[in-house]
Design a protein that fits this description.
By secondary structure, this protein is α/β, with parallel strands linked by helices. It contains nine helices and twelve strands. The structure holds calcium ion.
Length: about 270
């Protein structure tokens, strides 16, 4: 039996090895299955950038178990594409990569407007002390030294995500093109002219914006804003009707709300 088969066939919480080290010099990779999935209505996405396939597999498994969505790549160049396209909530970035190395990836991500706010946790080897410092100076949020335990990395991920959310809360005035939204005063303006929105319209706009470009389904919007959990035809149409009036009120900025056919909506940040 392959080692991976062995791991996957076990029930959660019955794994022999707990909090074992990953990426140790022996090259052994174990799964820490002591984490149970958390119930999040919207999964946070983690981008894994690492060329050691065993580590990617292990991280993918453990993160999914924790309720995260994952995307992964073995190379730096693709990492830049995925970060821009998929806007993950956090990036786990190995420093030693073929082609563009991790530091270069970090530097580019932090320079670009679209990706600058995505938190980065670096994976470093003990011998890369200087790189670690450079990485932090370039704007990485934290680092984990190999070998590491999945438990440790997940704890770091949660802490970094929590910090990012707190930072988001402080950013109460959002500006995109001619659109300005003051979250604390519940005020919206376009070209400096105040726009009157109903409470539901404001919630809808805020929810779309906070999704940072991710597509939100009609069902998700219904559940979050109206609290309908069983979406029927007439209820999903409620979302469409509100989107329509919201677009009308947003005037020149209306096209920031993009329809994703047969699914839902997303908010466009780019100009
Ligand atoms: Ca590597």
């Amino acid at each position: 039996m392959l080692f991976w088969d062995f791991c996957f066939r076990r029930e959660p919480r019955t794994l022999v090895q707990q909090d074992t080290l990953v990426g140790s010099p022996r090259g052994s990779t174990f799964i820490d299955a002591t984490f149970l999935p958390t119930n999040t209505s919207m999964k946070e996405t983690i981008l894994i950038v690492e060329d050691e396939k065993d580590i990617v597999k292990m991280l993918d498994y453990n993160l999914k178990k924790e309720g995260f969505k994952t995307i992964s790549t073995y190379d730096g160049e693709e990492a830049l594409d995925l970060a821009t396209k998929d806007r993950p909530d956090l990036i786990i970035l190995d420093l030693m990569l073929p082609g563009i190395d991790g530091l270069e990836v970090c530097k580019t991500l932090k320079k670009e407007n679209k990706t600058a706010s995505i938190p980065i946790i670096m994976l470093t080897a003990k011998s890369q002390e200087t790189d670690k410092i450079v990485g932090l100076e370039l704007g990485a949020d934290d680092y984990v030294t190999k070998p590491f335990s999945p438990r440790e990395l997940i704890a770091r991920i949660k802490a970094v995500l929590r910090r990012a959310k707190d930072k988001d809360k402080l950013q109460e005035i959002l500006k995109m093109g001619d659109l300005v939204i003051d979250l604390s005063k519940i005020m919206v303006s376009v070209k400096n002219k105040p726009i009157e929105l109903t409470a539901k319209e404001f919630e809808l706009l805020k929810t779309l914006i906070k999704a940072k470009g991710r597509v939100l389904s009609r069902d998700y919007l219904l559940d979050t804003i109206w609290g309908f959990d069983n979406a029927v035809e007439i209820q999903t149409r409620t979302v469409d009707v509100h989107i329509r009036t919201l677009r009308r009120k947003l005037k020149s900025e209306a096209e920031r709300i993009i329809t994703v056919k047969n699914y839902g909506y997303r908010f466009k940040y780019e100009d």
